[in-house]
Specification:
Strand order of the largest sheet: 1-2-3-5-4
Structural class: alpha+beta
Strand content: 15-25%
CATH class: Alpha Beta
Shape: elongated
Bound molecules: zinc ion
Oligomer: single chain
Number of strands: 5
Largest sheet: 5 strands, antiparallel
CATH topology: HIT family, subunit A
Number of domains: 1
CATH architecture: 2-Layer Sandwich
Length: about 150
């Protein structure tokens, strides 16, 4: 049973309904993935089930895996910590990229919507092969190098 009053106060329901601004990464029919506005680390994402429920949906887990894979290839953390939580009785999965030793209890650093938009674009870009330096620059470097040797 859903208590309407708690549902109205639920921050995650507000994100899903659009009453709270968020930076959406992806979604399926049961869950959405957004960036955490107070991230523990760069790329910290939340998978929120569309239904106000404590139950972790299978579709939330599959979305979590999909986003985790994308974060791993694009942002290259050492690992990604996946932790379930339910605040206000609403099931949420935290995806925390681990670069050093971050975990769910680490300090949070508020970020901006602009920064999250930039991060989203980063996740969406296809990997580009490294562009070779133009030849003229290589020649300049060769000429420059011997001068630096005392
Ligand atoms: Zn809710």
């Amino acid at each position: 049973m859903i208590n309407n009053e708690s549902k109205n106060q639920c921050v995650f329901c507000s994100i899903i309904s659009g009453n709270i601004n968020s930076c959406k990464i992806d979604e399926n029919d049961k869950a959405i993935a957004v960036f955490e506005i107070n991230p523990i680390s760069n790329g910290h994402a939340l998978i929120i089930s569309k239904e106000h429920s404590e139950k972790v949906q299978k579709k939330s887990l599959s979305l979590a895996k999909k986003i985790a894979k994308r974060i791993k290839t694009k942002l290259k953390p050492k690992d990604i910590q996946i932790s379930n939580s339910n605040l206000f009785g609403h099931s949420v999965i935290n995806l925390i990229p681990v670069y050093q030793d971050e975990n769910i209890n680490s300090k949070r650093n508020p970020t901006t919507m602009e920064e999250l938009e930039r991060l989203r674009a980063e996740l969406e870009t296809k990997s580009i092969k490294k562009i070779k330096k133009p030849k003229i620059q290589q020649i300049k470097e060769k000429l420059w190098l011997p001068k630096r040797i005392p």
